[in-house]
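Researcher: I'm preparing a figure for a lab meeting and need a structural model of a single chain. I don't have an experimental structure, so a prediction will have to do for now. The sequence is pasted below. Please return the structure as tokens so I can convert it later.
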Amino acid sequence: MTFENVAANLRESFRVIAASRAAGENRELRGVSIASASVTFQMFNCAFLSEPVITDAELTQRILLANTHFNARGLEWAYWVCEDWISGGARKRSRQLFERLGMRHSVDLPGMVAERVAPPAYPLPAIEVRRVCHGPVRDAFCAIGSLCFNVPITWFTEVFDSESVWERFESYVGYVDEEPVSTTAIVIGGGAMGVYNVATVPGHRRCGYGEAVMRHALADAESRHGIGRVLLQSTPAGYKLYQRMGFRTVTKVGVYSS
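Model: Understood. Here is the structure written out token by token.
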């Protein structure tokens, strides 16, 4: 797998969410993909590079094209950029170009892939895992996401307010003694299973619950889709765990917000 698998799956994850909402929008512009949920939480109103960028002028044009799209709709938004779409000097200057055009750098995330996830390095704790569809399990998924990603609960629930989103944004909540403690989501795209929303509430971290829920989600998705290849964008906290699980870094995803 290459960065293109990572880029395709990442784009698909936001397209699934955008498609689930009446106000959502998926569009293809010149070298730019738009996947906008049309929500308050700007990270879900997204632009992505969809073709290679060679020069500063080309990157500037792609940034301005997306900016025009979202400004016309009055939306705050974010650009998710797999840096391998950008060549040479333009890549070195890309952060400066984004910031010059009003896009603030938010974070860099290693894009990681595994042809097959390695077995657990140690016994994992017992945990009950429930698939999200609606009701209390959906509410628990949103509450954990809000807490762990430091986002207002109203923003998070707005993103996931449609029941149809759970058909392809395949999500799971892990429970310990009936308390929801950890989440994982799976999106199929780019020839692989993409892992998203890996989160564990404070007080239950470093116990193996996040890994246990993630492995359950991957096994369940693989049994239904027949795909064993996996990819994700890692946070600093999860990087060593993912390396231990057999993931390797193939790209870097930069996130810029308006």
